[in-house]
Every structure is written in structure tokens, then in C-alpha cells.
Amino acid sequence: MAAAPLRSVLRRNGLLPLFETCRLRDLLFFSSSVDPAAAVGGTISPDPHFMVEYLVNSCGFSPSEAAMFSEPLAHLRSTEKPDAVLNFMRSQGFDGAGIRKVISGDPRYLCCNVEKNLTPKFQFLRDLGLSESDIVDVIRNNDDILCRNVHRSFGPKLEIWESLLGSRELVLKHLKKSGWFFFSSVEKTLHPNLKFLRDECGIPEERFSLVLRSHPQLISQKPKSLRALVARADELGMPRQSRMFMWTLVVFHNVSQERFEAKVELMRSFGWSESEFSSAVRKAPTFLRVSVDMMRRKMEFFINIVGYTPSFIASQPTILLYGLQKRVIPRFRVLEMLITKGLGTRLGKFSYYVKLSNTKFREKIVLPYKEKVPELLDILRAGAEQ
């Protein structure tokens, strides 16, 4: 089903005026939905610890987990609401593992009023065009949706992220994976970060929007943290006008200063100068995401086996991005065998062939010699299976 326009969904639910005028803030509902005195249905017990057994039998938690998660439920004397919540979640497609993930996020979800708190949220997500399985994925990864007013919190933020990422489908795709980025404060986080990138850093909106489509978490961090990342990029000499500037921020967001310094020391041990390291990062910042151990193994292979100098590798840092066991070594062995057979006198530089796509490498190197050297395919297959 095609996703209905957000405003149509809100208008159909009579919520457009509220959507347009409400403050962008998150409202918890537990205080209004929990009724400690409710004991109208379900199992009634005077034992304050009966919820431990309930969590084991009804949800599949281990006794130790149940003991921990039962603490926020100590006021309950009836299983009426927990029964209703569990039955509702199962009816919406949640399996046992999904239910446990949500309840472990906050056991108080078992105190929800299904009709008032849960049903409207699930209906809202359905009206946005999400399937049953999509909704399960979104809530499994973002259970705090259940403790928010979706029309005041989820709705407005959805509209903002739609404009940033370019489509609702892309926003929902990220939400199904991990949506912690989604609920950052608009006033305290999103707007200040966007203004900083656009006005102070001079980065065109279309450029940072392109990066945010795959890394929305970049602007969901505290403004102070984003400024620190920009300072690190400046120290490296990365021009803010460079198209690699935003990608450098993404890398720094995932690579701590400590891990960065460890890589600086490693490459220095191989003979890289400070300027060579900075130049390599400016050309291919994502190589910093390679672990120190893997980086060492790649450098040793390129220097000791291929015969490259450290300075050459610094000038071609993208070769450090490719898988050593599945791509680099098998391709080197293929080229090495062709040379041994006297067929590789005009094969050019290895760095060129490392960068070719799998299809292009087969077309240019393997298939033309498959009759004379059938072992080439075996070499590539063996590498792919590692």
C-alpha cells in the first residue's frame, strides 16, 4: 500500500491543528495509564512477587531476568493489563523474542491501557503505510515510540526528517533498523546542528542532505559533539569546501580520538610522515574505520608481498579499503599465476586491478585465459569462500 501523505493521515484522525501548533516535546504516558488499584480481571494475587513467575511463564524470561524486570511492576496485583498487552502484541505480529525485547526496554509497557495507549499508535503507523512486519521492526528497534504521544512527537519529527532525507520511505527504512537518531530534540539538537553546518561551515544543504541519507545520526548528536568533529577535521587540514568533508565527519563520529591516534602511530611505524597520513585521510577518510590489526596486515602484504613503498600506499589509500582475504590476495595470486605462465607481461599495475569490480576483473583477467589457465576461477572461488 502506498504511504498516505502525512498531513492526510493527521487530518483523517482529526489531529492536523494539534500537529501544527503543538510544541515539539516528548510526553510520557505511564503516569496516566497505570492503575495500581485495577484488579478486575486476570489473575489476582496478594504476593508482591507474583510478577516474577508471570514474566517467566508468559514472556519466556529467565528467572533472573524476570526478577529484575518485575521491579517496576511491584505495584500490580492483577495480570489484567499485562495479559491484555501481551495478547495485543501477539495479535500485531510480535513473536516471543520481539515481546521480550520490548518489555526489557521498559517493563512498564505491561501497564499500558491497550485501547488508549497502544491501539492508536499502531493505527497511526499503519496509516503511514507501514505493513504489520514493518511496524514490528520499527517498534522492536524504537520501543520508546510506545511511551510517546505519536501525534505530538513522532508526527512532527517525521515531517522534519522527510524534508532532510528526501522521502518518508527512507526515514522509515532507517527506523526499521535503528531509530535512536529520530527522537533528538528539534530545538536543542537538529536546528542548531543544521544551522552550524550551513551557516558557519558553509556546507550546501544538498551536500549534507546527501550524507544524512545514509548517516542521519550525524546531526542527532549534541551540538558540542558535532563542533568537536569539525575541529578534528580542521586540524587534519580537510577543506570545508571539499566533498569529502562531510564524510570525514561521519568517520570521526565512528572513530574515537584514541582509535585515530592508534592508527597514526601504526602508519608512522611503517614510515608514513604526518603530511602523508593527512593526505591519505583527505583522499579516503573511510580507511580509518579499518581496525588496527587489519590495517597492519594489509600494509605488510602490500609492502612485503606486492612490493609497494609506504609512500605509494599513502598516495593510493583506497587500496586499504578492500578485503584482504576475499579480494586482494586472490587477485594478486591470479595475476601472479598469469605472469608465471608468461601471459601477464602487459597487465599493468596491481592497484588498478584491485579496484575493478568483481565482474570487470573476471571479464578482463580471468575469462580471456580460462582455457589456458582454468585454475584462475578456482583461486577466486577459494577467496570468496573465506
TrEMBL record:
State whether keyword Protein transport applies. Answer: no
Q: Which Pfam families match?
A: mTERF (PF02536)
One GO BP on record is: chloroplast organization
**Entry keyword set:** Membrane, Transcription, Transcription regulation, Transcription termination, Transit peptide, Transmembrane, Transmembrane helix
Give an example GO molecular function: nucleic acid binding
Q: Which GO terms describe its cellular component?
A: chloroplast
Does this entry carry the keyword Transcription regulation? yes
Mind telling me which Gene3D superfamilies this protein's record contains?
A: Transcription termination factor 3, mitochondrial
Q: Which residues cross the membrane?
A: 301-324
Record's InterPro entries? MTERF, MTERF_sf
Family, per entry: Belongs to the mTERF family.
Q: What is this protein called?
A: mTERF family protein
Its source organism is Musa acuminata subsp. malaccensis
Q: What is the lineage of its organism?
A: Eukaryota, Viridiplantae, Streptophyta, Embryophyta, Tracheophyta
